[in-house]
Amino acid sequence: MISLVDLRRQFQSVKYEISQAINEVIDSGQYILGPKVTELEEKIAKRMGVQEAISVANGTDALVLTLDAFGIGEGDEVITSPFTFFASAEAISRVGATPVFADIDPVTYNIDPKDVEKKITSATKAIIPIHLFGQPADMDEIMDIAKNHSLYVIEDACQAFGATYKDRPVGSLADAACFSFFPTKNFGTMGDGGVITTSDKNLAATIRKLRTHGTTKKYYHDRIGYNSRLDELHAAILLVILPKIDEWNQQRRQHAMRYWERLKHAPHLQLPKEASNRTHIYHLFCIEAKNREEVMERLIDEKIQTGVYYPQCLHLQDVYSNLNYKKGDFPIAESVSEKLFAVPMHPFLTEKEQDEVISVLLAKGDE
Length: 367
Prior knowledge:
Blueprint: H1 7-12, H2 15-28, H3 35-48, E1 52-56, H4 59-69, E2 77-80, H5 87-94, E3 98-101, H6 113-118, E4 124-128, H7 139-149, E5 152-156, E6 164-165, E7 168-169, E8 176-180, E9 194-198, H8 201-211, H9 232-241, H10 245-263, E10 278-279, E11 285-288, H11 292-301, H12 331-337, E12 340-343, H13 351-362
Parallel strand pairs: 2-3, 2-4, 4-5, 5-8
Antiparallel strand pairs: 1-9, 6-7, 6-10, 8-9, 11-12
Helix pairs in contact: 2-9, 3-9, 4-5, 4-8, 10-13
């Protein structure tokens, strides 16, 4: 099977260094919020050009804690995309606020700033744009809208570590940004993890308090918090991978360009497009096809793994039936959800494997 993501190859390539790093942690006797966590936070903050990086237990917690730290809760609204992983909206609901959706751009699949502005009400407190599949959202337009309406902006950068917007790294473009270290992410560990980046020192201090049960002094609490900390072992693993991430992202981009060159004339496929002034890191390489199921079936028959991202928009999920959205409310997102699928994309994909994928994709079959 040609894997959609090959984590075994990825971690085997750094197995020796990871083993050494894990042994160092074991020998240190410090397993929670130790020196590896501090080192990782400092290196990520420096890389992003921000003042603070606060690691947490996972990407979802990163969103939840950031919303909570901004004081967003019951009675508030937060605008985000209906075409993304559930956690983006779930985090809004988790703090008691209401997710409000805006449709997406048909080319980048990111939230459409024009539709965002239409959805702002007196209850709106923040916007969460998602850098979907590794491509930055239209951040200048979103930040201008936020400034005009006094709203917070939180980048959901969980799929986009290393991507850039007008030569600036995602993670430095808004009031705060949230990343996931889930294993399948382009910068992932061997388990769960996440980080929040910001240059707001007061916000960072609040998040640090929230991640440890609402305390800065053990056993003395002045607010309700969470238990959301990155394990020292995962920090050690991520420190091994961090120096390699740019090379791995570049390999993803090379694979993406090769897909593009070989498939650009296939009339039955619509390939992802990279917007100007951005560096897309291709966490996923997703293609549109009207006959998606047929194409995916051919790939599976040839032992090529594929996946649908995302089969049902968030506004149509059963859990959000109380929000009274209906099919047709976000026509672009709904249309894309019926046609988009992912093909193998990771730094260790070989040319031979990619050629096999391309060969199957070029076979139109019956439409």
